[in-house]
Design a protein that fits this description.
heterodimer; A: 57 residues; 56% helix; B: 567 residues; mainly alpha; 2 domains; 0% strand
């Protein structure tokens, strides 16, 4: 069976909707959105650190 | 230390050890002893991942590193959120699907027993050695404060962790992580606030940052691409990504933490939150180090931060020479304070010319301080022998000299708790690999669960003794946080390469990946010995070489009679 993000194998007896949302925080609706938030946060942190550095140096 | 500090320290340790033992009251099965019965919610997973990574080494070395080298070390963690995304997409579903105890079990299904045994061996070697460093960190504190012999300090601190890890297993480890992280976070914030409070009245928090910034300590971002520069954005994003992916995805001490999640979703969210929180947390720890640096611009720092070594030289024939260097150092520091105050004043006025003048004068003074410190270190080395690196003592010395009664005991307890958290995870993972990948697989295949729990307890004991032994040699290394990461970089890239071949190169078989990884490891170790590149790049090199060699070997010497296995 091919695995994908919304179809974990050990999800005995659960509906597809509840499986795909298992563990997802309320501010996103898919895992893909959560990953985008993580990468966006990283980019934002690099920008903020750069501004912090230039301000204090 | 005051008696109140001793009470706080003792009570905290007794509480955590008792709690760990209390968690072990229930009859343990192999599943509960090694994976906490897969019952943990995401926040337990996140805090357990963070507590495993952030040991006493993080708490001791990182502020010292910021003091001497600035905040650029934060870039080391830039690859972490990217690694967490890959783990959520690939590793968690695979490991959950196969219901494995260790990451290396997966490799036997995909390749063969030989490849599983090789990666398991590399892990045991690397983790056993680096856990020795993690035990050494709090031993360093106790020996510096109490003047204890470092050998006995290692035995006692490493032994305390063995107590509740042997009895409680993974469940005790996960539950104690939650308390440890809460106490650590609160204490770091309090320590940061206290440093600011100890600054002269006319110097604010932002003034302190400006002073540190003008003296080159707020060097958070470096976009220059340089293979020999240890910390820049690119080494952090690329090299750091491979290191973190390998650490979290193939190091059993971390795989064993996220596999405790009650479902794949809880494990994934635990990893994702770790990706979001780790960089800000590391930034704050480094910020404390920079604030300590700013504090010591207004208050004379010691010439050398390890007081035990200083006390020792003062009983030798080199005492007068050292005292002369101390006087010279104090004189420079005395003339430095008015210059730093002039700089803060100029900063408030926005007088660019005065700022530049003060900055140049301070740079010259810093160079003089650096020369005196180098002379002192040479003298200390001549008198006492051994290592004269005091990076790991800087924050510790500040805590002891300036924090109020009670807080010293609490912060020392926090350092010990942080160490206990990572060491406990390591003991548990070393025992998991030894029992699941070696004992259960190769020695006794069909024993009952209780026999394997007993074997896990013996394995924990064995590895505890091994790690304490390694700790005896840790003092010969420089900054411990770097030493741990260098050690990891020697092995992680190759292990990651094996896993990536398993996941993404379905036509490469076991023989090719086995020999590819042996050749790759030889290249990595050779590159390190010949100092060909900064250590973070070794992760990328190791990983790429394994994939490339395995691919070539499969093409040149194809393994016949093997049905390609799906990962």
């Amino acid at each position: 069976m091919e695995l994908n993000e919304n179809n974990p194998p050990d999800s005995d007896g659960l509906s597809e909707d509840s499986i795909s949302r298992d563990g997802l925080p309320p501010f996103v609706s898919t895992w893909k959105q959560l990953y985008i938030v993580m990468i966006g946060t990283l980019a934002l942190l690099i920008i903020l650190f750069y501004l912090f550095m230039t301000h204090f140096q | 230390m005051n008696y109140l500090d001793w009470i706080v320290l003792s009570l905290t340790l007794i509480f955590v050890v008792s709690y760990g033992i209390y968690r072990s009251r229930e009859k343990q099965s192999m599943d509960s002893f090694l994976l906490a019965g897969k019952s943990m919610p995401w926040y337990h997973v996140t805090l357990s991942l963070m507590a495993t990574q952030a040991s006493a080494i993080t708490f001791l070395s990182a502020p010292g590193q910021a003091y001497t080298d600035g905040m650029r070390f934060v870039q080391f963690y830039f690859g972490l959120p990217l690694a967490m995304v890959v783990l959520c997409i690939t590793f968690v579903p695979k490991f959950s699907q196969l219901k494995v105890f260790t990451a290396y079990e997966f490799l036997e299904g995909r390749f063969d027993l030989r490849t599983r045994a090789l990666t398991s061996f590399l892990f045991l070697l690397q983790r056993g050695l680096s856990t020795g460093l993690s035990i050494y960190a709090p031993s360093l504190i106790l020996s510096a404060i109490l003047g204890w012999d470092i050998t006995w300090t290692n035995i006692i601190s490493g032994g305390i962790v063995m107590l509740y890890t042997i009895s409680g297993g993974s469940q005790a480890v996960s539950h104690t992580h939650l308390q440890q992280m809460a106490i650590i976070t609160v204490s770091m914030v309090v320590a940061g606030v206290m440093v600011v409070k100890f600054l002269p009245e006319e110097v604010s928090f932002t003034d302190a940052l400006h002073v540190a910034g003008k003296m080159g300590k707020v060097n958070l971002i470096d976009f220059t691409f340089d293979l020999n520069n240890r910390y820049n954005v690119w080494s952090g994003l690329i090299g750091g990504f491979f290191l973190q992916l390998s650490y979290f995805g193939t190091d059993q001490s971390q795989v064993g933490r996220f596999m405790t999640g009650s479902s794949p979703g809880q494990s994934k969210l635990g990893l994702a939150m770790n990706g979001l929180l780790k960089i800000p947390m590391q930034f704050l720890i480094l910020l404390v180090g920079v604030l300590v640096f700013a504090f010591y611009q207004f208050t004379a720092p010691p010439l050398f931060f390890n007081q035990t070594v200083v006390d020792k030289i003062k009983t030798t024939q080199y005492a007068s020479e050292y005292n002369a260097l101390e006087s010279q150092h104090n004189q420079i520091q005395a003339t430095k304070r008015p210059q730093v105050l002039a700089l803060t004043d100029a900063l408030k006025r926005g007088d660019e010319k005065a700022i530049e003048n003060s900055r140049n004068t301070l740079a010259k003074m810093e160079a003089s301080v650096g020369k005196v410190r180098t002379d002192a270190q040479t003298l200390l080395s001549k008198a006492n022998g051994g290592d004269t690196n005091d990076v790991n003592y800087i924050f510790l010395r500040f805590v002891i000299d300036y924090l109020p009664v009670g807080m010293v005991g609490l912060l020392i307890a926090v350092i010990l708790l942080a160490s206990m958290g990572s060491v406990a995870s390591a003991y548990n993972s070393l025992a998991s690999c030894t029992v699941v990948d070696i004992y259960k697989r190769m020695v006794r295949k069909d024993n009952d669960s209780h026999d394997y729990v007993a074997a896990s307890r013996w394995a924990t004991f064995f590895w505890g003794v091994f790690c304490i032994f390694v700790a005896q040699y840790a003092s010969r290394l420089g900054s411990m946080i770097e030493a741990v990461n260098i050690l990891g970089s020697l092995f992680y890239g190759v292990i990651l390469g094996i896993f990536l071949v398993a996941f993404y190169f379905k036509n490469i078989n076991s023989r090719a990946v086995f020999w590819g990884s042996i050749i790759g490891e030889i290249f990595v170790v050779t590159s390190y010995i010949l100092d060909l590149t900064a250590f973070l790049w070794l992760n990328l090199i190791g990983c790429t070489l394994v994939i490339a060699f395995a691919w070539c070997i499969e093409k040149i010497w194809p393994q016949t009679g093997v049905t390609p296995k799906s990962a």
